[in-house]
From TrEMBL:
GO molecular function per UniProt: DNA-binding transcription factor activity; transcription cis-regulatory region binding
A Pfam short name: TetR_N
Gene3D superfamilies assigned to the protein according to its UniProt record, in alphabetical order: Tetracycline Repressor, domain 2
InterPro entries (UniProt xref): Homeodomain-like_sf (IPR009057), HTH-type_TetR-like_transc_reg (IPR050109), HTH_TetR (IPR001647)
HTH tetR-type domain: residues covered: 9-69
DNA-binding residues (ranges): 32-51
Source taxonomy: Bacteria, Bacillati, Actinomycetota, Actinomycetes, Streptosporangiales
Record protein name field: Helix-turn-helix transcriptional regulator
Keywords recorded for this protein, A-Z: DNA-binding, Transcription, Transcription regulation
């Protein structure tokens, strides 16, 4: 549960909303502190007061956006697992593969619809903690520990391609074409 939910009329809330919009549509390095402050109608000092730095504001905005993404993806996996039955059936690995692919497509659609191509398409800035890769790894199981990182990179590459002008349907087709081989013991 979040400790704080931004209120759009507060300076902190306006900064958070401005950050989600700016970092969603442009890479971290292209967004300036002055532009974030101007969009939120605050001084740059307010940004530093509330978030410590541009990276601190980015981390706050990314955590919020990423939580919304992961909620949707985890929901897609849970729905797929409910529809396919128990994870202990002989087809469990195939079902899990389909569930992970479905979740990646749900996440892609969410990121495109909300305009979060860069904030979610870029690897996390300022940290090695990759919540998307961790969630995908947990969904796959322990038999394929690096697969979550590989899938997260492929998913982000699809978002980057869209940000560079590719059609979202082409990116969806690329994700759907991935064939995961998850060992039965996973």
């Amino acid at each position: 549960m979040r400790e704080w939910i931004p209120v759009s009329t507060s300076p902190r809330g306006r900064l958070a909303l401005a950050a989600v919009e700016a970092f969603g549509t442009r890479p971290f390095a292209e967004v300036t502190v002055a532009e974030l402050a101007a969009a939120a109608q605050v001084t740059t000092g307010a940004l530093y007061h509330h978030f410590g730095s541009k990276l601190g504001l980015y981390a706050f905005a990314r955590q919020d956006v990423e939580r919304r993404l992961l909620d949707r993806m985890e929901g897609a996996i849970a729905a797929s697992e409910s529809a396919s039955g128990s994870r202990s059936t002989p087809a469990a690995a195939s079902d899990r593969s389909a569930a992970v692919t479905s979740a990646m497509l749900v996440g892609l659609d969410f990121a495109v619809r909300e305009g979060f191509l860069h904030i979610l398409g870029d690897p996390p800035a300022g940290t090695d903690h990759d919540r998307l890769a961790e969630m995908l790894s947990q969904s796959i199981g322990p038999a394929a520990p690096l697969l979550g990182r590989v899938l997260a990179a492929a998913w982000r590459a699809a978002l980057a391609a869209i940000a560079d002008g590719a059609e979202p349907e082409d990116a969806r087709a690329a994700i759907a074409a991935l064939r995961l081989h998850i060992p039965n013991g996973a």
